[in-house]
Amino acid sequence: MPGIRNVIRTHHVDRWLWVYMPYTIMIFNFLTNLIVSTFTGPYTSGGVMSIYVFMMTLGIITVPMNFSFLLGLGVRRKDYYSGTVIWLTVHMLVASIVLAVLREIEKATSWGTGLGFFNFPFTNELGFLEFLALNFVVFTFFCFFGFLLPSIARRFGALVLAALLVLMFVVLGIASVLVTFYELWDEVGRFFATYQTDSIWYLIPFTLLFAAIAYLLLRRSTVK
C-alpha cells in the first residue's frame, strides 16, 4: 500500500496536467461554441470530444513521465501499475460526473441559445446515472487504450509499437475498402443509428483487455 500511495502522490504533483488542463480546454471549446450559437441559433456541437481525446493523451504520457523515475526509487512494478490504474480510473469517474452534471444544466437551460454541447440526440433519453456510466465507459476505453501504447513501447520498443499502429490502420483501411466495395455503409449506418448507446457498452471488455495487457507488459519491461 505505501508504494501505491507514493505512485498516486507522484501523479498528483502535476495538478495542472491532470486537473486544470483538460477542463480548461473543454471550457474554451464550450465558450467558443456558445458565442457562435448566439449568432447561428440552436445547433449541436461536437466540441466536447476534445476532452475524450485529452483523456487518451493522459493515458499515453503517463508511463513515459514517471515509470522509470518511480521504479528507480524502489517502487515495485505491481504497485506502479495499481497506483496508476486507480489514479486514471478516479479521474475518468470525475470527468464523467462533471459531464453528467453539465449535461443536466444544458437540458434545463440550453445555455439560453439552444446550444447542444454536452448532450447529443442519441443520449437525450438517458437518465443521469446512465449517461454518467456511458461516459465512464468511453473515457476508460480511450484512456486505457492510450495507457497500452507506451506499455508496448516500453516492453518491445518504439519500432514494434509503430509497426502495430501501421498494421491497425492497414486493417481498418482494408475493412473500409471492403465495406465500400460491397456497398455496406448504409447497413453500418443503420446499425449504429439503431444501437448507438447499446453498442458503447461493448467497449468494456476491450478496456479490461487493454488494462490486462498493459499489466503483463509493464511487469516485464526494462527501466531506461
Automatic annotation (TrEMBL):
Keyword terms, alphabetized: Membrane, Transmembrane, Transmembrane helix
Signal peptide range in chain numbering: none
Keyword Kinase in annotation: no
Keyword Aminoacyl-tRNA synthetase: no
Transmembrane annotation, as ranges: 20-39, 51-73, 80-102, 128-149, 156-179, 199-218
Tree of life domain: Bacteria
Protein name: ABC transporter permease
